[in-house]
Amino acid sequence: MAIKVQNTTVINDSRQLENISNLKTVNSQSILGAGDISITGIPTAGTTGQVLTKNSSTNYDVSWINPGNEVTSTVTSSAGAATINTSLATVFLHSLTENTTYTFSNPPASGTGYTITLKIVQNSTPRTITWPASVKWVAASPPTLSTGSGDVDVFAFFTHDAGTNWYGFVAGQDLS
What we know:
The protein is mostly beta strands.
């Protein structure tokens, strides 16, 4: 499906940018500021993961996101609680400093498959984790964390129903 502004296609059916340098107003309102539009890195046919980034009032850069790259976010806990905000990243890193109860927030809408990865680094004092009730583990049994100082455990979680159920998997333990 093409995206049009003022009946001008700006993103075509192949998800390619086009006609963007002629687009200056929407409903007689400037959307870019004064002057001409300058775009660098115009995409070529077949390129995926294009992002148009505004770098000044009238200049834009087109960059590409490699579909294999994922955004990471560092998780911190306070008063024994940590929130994994799934709208921020797909890979989360947490160095335990206390026993922690996790909450998973902002999953995508039902019908959208979504997976997150959580890397946990154990403290010099072994810490524990309480998982959200929505996490379903093999045989309904959460895994036991590695307990050595600096031990690394990695978990993956999958949902397709807006986080009503998260299916939890051990990706690796004691990876230090």
